[in-house]
Amino acid sequence: MKHLAAYLLLGLGGNTSPSAKDIKGVLSSVGIDADDERLDKLISELDGKDIQELIAEGSTKLASVPSGGGGGAAAPAAAAGGGAAAAEDKKPEKEPEPEEESDDDMGLDLFG
Question: How far apart are CA 79 and CA 88, in angstroms?
Answer without folding.
Answer: 13
